[in-house]
Structure formats: C-alpha cells, structure tokens
Amino acid sequence: MATILVVDDDPAIRQLLTDVLEMDGHVVAVAVDGHDGLRAFEVIRPDFVILDVMMPGLDGYGVLRDIRGQEGDPVPVLMLTAGADGDSASRGWAGGVDYYLAKPFAADDILDLVEDALGASHSGL
C-alpha cells in the first residue's frame, strides 16, 4: 500500500483516480489545485504523485518544479494532460517528470504506472 497524492482541478478525475487507487489498496489524498497540492505534498509526503498539467493558479509544471526542488529521494510523478502535444511532453520531461499520460486514460494504465514505480519498494505492504 502506498500513499498517493492526486492533484487535479477536475472533480470527476479526482474521484475516478481515488476510486481506482483505493480499490487497489492505496491511501489517496487529493488536492484541487497546484497550491493546494504543494501544501498537501509537504504535509503528507506521498510515495507517488499524480499531477494534472493545466490547473488555475499554479499549473502542474510549477508544482513539479517545486516537488523536484525538495530535498531527499525524488518522489515518482505522473503528469496527466488533456493537451498531449510534443511541447507539453517535452516540458514535462525537462522538468523531471517520471511518467506522462494523455487524457482520456484507462484506469489500468494508471495502476500499471503506479505498480511500475512502486512495485518493488512497496510489495508485501
């Protein structure tokens, strides 16, 4: 079981991800925008972050930059975007994102990426 932080301004996406991840045995915390996501990251110290790119206020790239600026072991980050173009993906990779996935996505894709990132370190928990 891992603690996963979902940062997305779309309530339907937050709920879908929460349901899918909790059914897989994870603890899920949610944040409604980038600033809320950074506050939650500081308090929760999640094992994995799912981060929307386009949000009001602080976008996903800003959140990623601040997460990558933290001391300690880097937390795996998956960025979700409705606008999956080459420039957007390049900006994410340059910022240090671990995974990048276009919306709409399949729930199994999310679970596979979480397992890929955390499977070895969280197996048997």
Keywords:
single chain; 125 residues; alpha/beta
Summarize the entry for a quick read.
Helix content is 47%, strand content 19%.
What does this structure look like?
This protein is of the alpha/beta class. It has 5 helices and 5 strands; from the N terminus they run E-H-E-H-E-H-E-H-E-H. A 5-stranded parallel beta sheet has the order 2-1-3-4-5, sandwiched between helices. Strand 1, helix 1 and strand 2 form a beta-alpha-beta unit. The termini are close together. The mean pLDDT is 89.
- Number of separate strands: 5
Known CATH architecture? 3-Layer(aba) Sandwich
Succession of helices and strands: EHEHEHEHEH
For the record, give the distance between the C-alpha atoms at the N and C termini, rounded to a whole number.
Answer: 5 Å
* CATH fold name: Rossmann fold
- How confident is the prediction overall: mean pLDDT? 89
**According to CATH, what is the class?**
Alpha Beta
Number of helical elements: 5
Instruction: Work out the radius of gyration.
Output: 13 Å
Structural class: alpha/beta
Relevant CATH superfamily: Response regulator
Total number of distinct structural domains = 1
Strand order of the largest sheet: 2-1-3-4-5
Considering DSSP H and I runs of 4 or more, what fraction of the residues is helical?
Answer: 40-55%
Which range does the strand content fall in?
Answer: 15-25%
- The best one-word shape is globular
Task: Identify low-pLDDT runs.
Answer: none
Give a quick account of the main beta sheet: strands, pairing sense, barrel closure: 5 strands, parallel
GO molecular function: DNA binding
Keywords: DNA-binding, Phosphoprotein, Transcription, Transcription regulation, Two-component regulatory system
Protein name: DNA-binding response OmpR family regulator
Organism: Catenuloplanes indicus
